[in-house]
Design goal:
By secondary structure, the protein is mainly beta. It contains no helices and 37 strands. The strands form 10 sheets. Strands 6, 7, 8, 9 and 10 form a 5-stranded antiparallel sheet that branches. Strands 1-31-30-29 form a 4-stranded antiparallel sheet, with no helix packed on it. Strands 2-3-4-5 form a 4-stranded antiparallel sheet, with no helix packed on it. Strand 24 and strand 25 form a beta hairpin. It is globular, with a radius of gyration of 24 Å.
Length: 465
C-alpha cells in the first residue's frame, strides 16, 4: 500500500519554555513625524490584509493621525489628520473596527474636553459623534472602547463638573445618542491617593456576559489601583482586587484580558522586585495569583504598560523598558505562570523602542507599535513572526499513523483531517484525531487504524483551531 502524507495547514505556535529560539522583528513602518505621524500609542486593528492605527503626534497639523497600511508594510496611507479643536487631537486610544468603520477616542473635540469619533476605512470620512464638556460625567477619554451591537463602552479617566470623582465608565450609542455614565469613581484623598473604588480608569474595559471589567490605575484602599467590574446597565461597582504594591503589584496601566472565568493583566510597578507583575484573578475576585514578578536585571523586561494578548493557553505582552537592549521586550508566559520567556529585545534603532500598546495576533505573527525609536526616533510598526508549527516525524505503528510535531501552544487544539482526494476543499475533509495541548512545545497525535489494505492513497492535514 502507498501512504502519502500532505501537510496543508500549518499554523504558528508559541513558546512555552524559557529556552526560546531567537526571534526577529520585521520593521513595517518607520514614522517620520511629518506627514505620516509620530509616536503611535494605541494598539492596532486588522481587517483582511490591512492594519489600522493612530499616532499621538505628527502629521501635517502635528495633532496626530489615523493611518492604514498593508500587513507587509506596503501601502501606508493617512485616513485622517487631526487639527485640534473643534477636531480631535493626540489620540492615545486603540481603534475598534466594525464593518468598514473605525471607532476611537481623542483629546480636543468641539468642547476641548475630549471626543469620540468614527472614520470610514474606504474614504477616510471623519465624524465626531460625541464631544465631552465641562458638565459631562467624565472628560478626556484615552482608552480603547469595546463595541456590543450598536453600543460602545469605555472609560474617561478625568472628572467633569457632573462627576464627583476621578474617572467614569460610560456607554454611548455609535450614533452619539444616549450617553450614560455607568459609574463615577469617587474622589481620592491623602498620599498616596486612596478611596474605596479606585481612580483614573485609563485602560478601558472589556465585556463578558453583561459585565464590564477594567483596571483603575490608582486609588483603592492602598492607593495602588484596583481591578473592578460594573454591570452594563449601570449600578454598583464591584472591587475585585485592591493592589498592595508588594508582592501583588502596583498601578495597573494596561487593562485586563478575560478567558474562562479568569482575568489576566499586568501592573506597571510593584511586585517583589518593584518592576511590575503579570497576574491572574478570577472574575469574582477570588484566587489572585502573581504569574510573574519582573526582575531588575537587563535580561528580563520591566514596567509593562499594555494589556495582554491570549492565544490558546499562552499570554503575550510587552514591557516598556528592560531587556538586553534596555528599550523594552516582547514576552510570553503560560496562563498557569510557567514558561516565562523574552521573545524579543528592542534596541531603539532600527526596529523601535518603548512598546506601550497591546499586541495583535494574526496568522502566526504578532503585530505591534513602539512609541519611540526607529531611524527617525518617532516610533515604528513591527511584526514578530512566531515559530511555525513543524512536523518532526511521521511513523507507522501497526495500522496507526503517529505524527510528532513541535512549537505547539499550550491550550490550543490540533486536529488531523483526512481525505482520499487532494482536490476536495479542506472544509470537507474528515477529522480523525484531535489533541488539546496541556503543555507547549513538542506533541504527538496518533491516528488510529489509518492504514487500510483497500486504500491506495490517503492525504492528511494537521490543522490548528
Amino acid at each position: 500500500m502507498k501512504l502519502r502524507i500532505v501537510t496543508l495547514a500549518l499554523a504558528l505556535l508559541a513558546m512555552a519554555s524559557v529556552h526560546l529560539p531567537a526571534q526577529t522583528v520585521t520593521l513595517l513602518h518607520d514614522f517620520t513625524n511629518n506627514p505620516d505621524g509620530a509616536n503611535p500609542f494605541g494598539g492596532l486593528a486588522l481587517a483582511g490584509g490591512t492594519l489600522y492605527g493612530t499616532t499621538v503626534h505628527g502629521g501635517t497639523n502635528s495633532g496626530g493621525t489615523v493611518f492604514a497600511m498593508n500587513t507587509d508594510g506596503s501601502g501606508y496611507r493617512i485616513l485622517h489628520l487631526f487639527t485640534g479643536p473643534p477636531d480631535g487631537s493626540t489620540p492615545q486610544a486603540g481603534l475598534v473596527l466594525a464593518g468598514g468603520t473605525l471607532y476611537s477616542a481623542a483629546s480636543g473635540g468641539t468642547n476641548d474636553y475630549g471626543c469620540l469619533f468614527s472614520v470610514d476605512t474606504s474614504d477616510g470620512g471623519y465624524n465626531e459623534f460625541y464631544s465631552f464638556n465641562v458638565y459631562s460625567n467624565g472628560t478626556f477619554p484615552e482608552a480603547q472602547m469595546v463595541l456590543d451591537g450598536g453600543t460602545l463602552y469605555g472609560t474617561a479617566a478625568s472628572d467633569g463638573y457632573g462627576n464627583p470623582g476621578w474617572g467614569t465608565v460610560f456607554s454611548v450609542q455609535t450614533s452619539g445618542n444616549n450617553y450614560m455614565a455607568l459609574y463615577n469613581f469617587t474622589t481620592p484623598h491623602g498620599v498616596p491617593l486612596t478611596n474605596d473604588d479606585g481612580e483614573q480608569p485609563g485602560s478601558g474595559v472589556i465585556l463578558a456576559g453583561g459585565t464590564l471589567y477594567g483596571a483603575a490605575y490608582g486609588g483603592g484602599t492602598n492607593g495602588y489601583g484596583t481591578i473592578y467590574s460594573v454591570p452594563t446597565n449601570g449600578g454598583s461597582l464591584n472591587v475585585l482586587h485592591t493592589f498592595t504594591n508588594n508582592p501583588d503589584g502596583a498601578y495597573p496601566q494596561g487593562g485586563v484580558t478575560f478567558a474562562g472565568g479568569t482575568l489576566f493583566g499586568t501592573t506597571m510597578s510593584g511586585g517583589t522586585n518593584g518592576k511590575g507583575t503579570v497576574f491572574a484573578v478570577n472574575s469574582d475576585g477570588s484566587g489572585y495569583l502573581v504569574l510573574h514578578s519582573f526582575l531588575t536585571n537587563r535580561i528580563d523586561g520591566f514596567n509593562p504598560e499594555a494589556s495582554l494578548t491570549l492565544v490558546g493557553g499562552t499570554l503575550f505582552g510587552t514591557t516598556r523598558l528592560g531587556g538586553t537592549g534596555g528599550r523594552g521586550t516582547v514576552f510570553s508566559i503560560q496562563t498557569n505562570g510557567s514558561g516565562y520567556g523574552v521573545l524579543y529585545n528592542f534596541t531603539n534603532t532600527p526596529e523601535g523602542a518603548d512598546p506601550e500598546s497591546q499586541l495583535l495576533y494574526s496568522a502566526g505573527s504578532l503585530f505591534g507599535v513602539t512609541e519611540a525609536g526607529g531611524s527617525s526616533v518617532w516610533g515604528t510598526v513591527f511584526r514578530l513572526d512566531l515559530p511555525m508549527l513543524a512536523i518532526t516525524s511521521l511513523n507507522l505503528a501497526g495500522t496507526n499513523l503517529v505524527i510528532n510535531a513541535t512549537n505547539g501552544i499550550v491550550g490550543a487544539s490540533y486536529t488531523v483531517l483526512t481525505s482520499s482526494d487532494l482536490s476536495v476543499p479542506p472544509s470537507l475533509w474528515l477529522p480523525v484525531a484531535t489533541n488539546i495541548l496541556s503543555g507547549g512545545g513538542g506533541f504527538t497525535i496518533t491516528v488510529t487504524n489509518s492504514v487500510s489494505a483497500g486504500v491506495s492513497q490517503q492525504f492528511y492535514i494537521l490543522q490548528t483551531q
